[in-house]
Design goal:
By secondary structure, this protein is α/β, with parallel strands linked by helices. It has two domains: 88 residues, no CATH class; 130 residues, no CATH class. It has four helices and eight strands; from the N terminus they run αβαββββββαβα. Strands 2-4-5-8-6 form a five-stranded mixed β-barrel. α1 runs antiparallel to α4. The radius of gyration is 26 Å and the shape is elongated. The relative contact order is 0.18. The mean pLDDT is 84.
């Protein structure tokens, strides 16, 4: 329980640091594609403006995305900009009643001066990919695994994603880099700490009672 409290505390501190980093770049001008590529670190959440051609027929649908209680998908496709392939998140679309009935999306063949944010995808080893490397599109995926996408496309893809932020009638684009605020992690840390302290005192008094009982038993045996 103490370990869980410490883990939640660290998660809260990490979230607070990321929110501070986001605030520091929110009012800055958008970086060009070349400027982002020139940076070797600290590219997470950077605003970016870029242009590129889109592989509009090769659509990836990220599964299990929930918006306002409705299940749906985040729509991804690869853009080629400055001879580099980069995965682009076009936004969220609602799913249909039948799970096998995938939503139809229409992507442009090109983006010009598109505005977005740089996102570094995280790999969850507990998530098992169910998509196959075949020629069927759109392809439903369980997480953003750049290596898997490279295998599917048979091409190199940059290790970050650009999430588009401009309003669009077809997609919902309410970019939320931090879903759970730091305060919630701190509250969980306090709860785990309280449970740990309570468990410690229960153990302490139970052990003391057991030791007293053992001493009394030993004293009676000596008297006999």
């Amino acid at each position: 329980m103490f370990a869980l409290a410490n883990w939640q505390l660290q998660r809260g501190l990490d979230k607070a640091q990321r929110m501070q980093s986001i605030d520091s770049v929110t009012n800055s001008t958008s970086y060009s594609f070349d400027a982002v590529l020139a940076r070797t670190q600290d590219i997470q959440d950077l605003p970016i403006s870029f242009s590129g051609s889109i592989e509009s027929q090769q659509v990836f649908l990220l599964d299990n995305r929930i918006k306002q209680g409705r299940p749906g998908f985040d729509v991804y496709a690869v853009a080629k900009s400055n001879d580099h392939n980069v995965l682009v998140n076009f936004g969220w679309v609602a799913g249909k009643q039948m799970r096998d009935d995938l939503p139809e999306v229409s992507l442009p063949d090109r983006l010009n001066d598109a505005q977005g944010r740089v996102v570094l995808p995280s790999d969850n080893p507990m998530v098992k990919e169910t998509a196959t490397q075949d020629g069927l599109w759109p392809k439903v995926i369980q997480q953003i695994d750049i290596q898997f996408i490279e295998q599917v496309l048979q091409a190199e893809v940059l290790p970050f994603v650009i999430t588009l932020t401009q309003n669009n009638a077809q997609f919902i684009r309410n970019w939320q880099p931090v879903v759970m605020p730091p305060e919630k992690h701190y509250a969980y840390a306090v709860q785990w700490l309280g449970l740990g302290i309570a468990a410690f005192f229960v153990y302490f008094f139970a052990l003391r009672a057991r030791l007293r009982s053992g001493l009394k038993k030993g004293s009676h045996e000596q008297d006999e």
